[in-house]
Design brief:
Helices cover 85% and strands 0% of the residues. The protein is mainly α. α3 (44-73) runs antiparallel to α9 and α4 (82-108) packs across α10. The longest helix has 43 residues, at 192-234. The relative contact order is 0.21. The mean pLDDT is 84.
């Protein structure tokens, strides 16, 4: 029987890693911008609430699907294995490329990023179509796919019982949606009239600084995953 203190430290490290991946995925300027526009528009709680629920369900299903595939293929994700080391190094390269692209792009752009002009047309879509496109965007980008895969890989390497895997997946989903839940809960608790100025200023700030922060977060994760991959090669 393992040392309870060691097991607790291992679980804490796992949850911290999952939380970091969740926050990185959750910092999506497109989705946060869409939510802010929904909250500033008609039926804000209904449309914004379903939008956030769609995000949480998509995040959980993506990890569950990857876990199912990993268990079915008996993939080993222990440190030093080829699967985990390869995933770490490839993800580090993709995230580094994305981060540099975002940082260099912000220096060249004088106005708001190009994606901001498309958000109004997205918000005008019927809610089911909007939720479908939002879910596809959530898992479509290569960096998010690698982060979902890393999340599933960390859970596979922990070799948890299925019930604990599901609980950890639920926690990851909630953390990944924290940046969306915050303005929605603020609107629900405080009220639209009092939160409206904050939503407007938050939208303006996001459109001005979102790409820069995405670039910095991507580079930080690339350094971490690159370090993990190098450690794996040495193991």
């Amino acid at each position: 029987m393992g040392d309870p203190q060691t097991a607790a430290m291992g679980l804490g490290s796992l949850l911290a890693e999952l939380s970091a991946f969740g926050l990185a995925i959750g910092f999506s300027p497109i989705h946060i911008g869409l939510l802010l526009l929904l909250l500033l528009g008609p039926k804000p709680l209904q449309r914004g609430g379903w939008f956030v629920v769609g995000w949480l369900i998509t995040a959980a299903l993506a990890v569950i699907l990857l876990l199912t595939v990993g268990h079915g293929l008996l993939l080993s994700m222990d440190k030093g294995t080829s699967h985990r080391t390869g995933l770490d190094l490839i993800a580090a390269g993709v995230l580094l490329g994305l981060g540099l692209k975002e940082l260099l792009g912000t220096k060249e752009e004088s106005g708001p990023p190009g994606w901001t002009s498309k958000l109004e047309s997205f918000c005008a879509m019927p809610l089911p179509l909007l939720l479908g496109i939002s879910g596809l965007l959530e898992v479509a980008s290569p960096d998010d796919l690698f982060l979902f895969a890393k999340t599933a890989g960390s859970l596979l390497s922990a070799d948890l019982p299925h019930s604990q895997e599901l609980l950890a997946t639920g926690l990851f989903s909630l953390v990944s949606g924290a940046l969306l839940l915050a303005p929605l809960l603020g609107l629900l608790v405080v009220g639209k009239e009092r939160v409206l100025p904050l939503l407007e200023s938050g939208k303006s700030w996001l459109f001005a600084k979102g790409d820069l922060l995405v670039g910095l977060v991507s580079i930080a994760l690339a350094i971490y995953l690159g370090w993990q991959g190098i450690e794996g090669l040495q193991a």
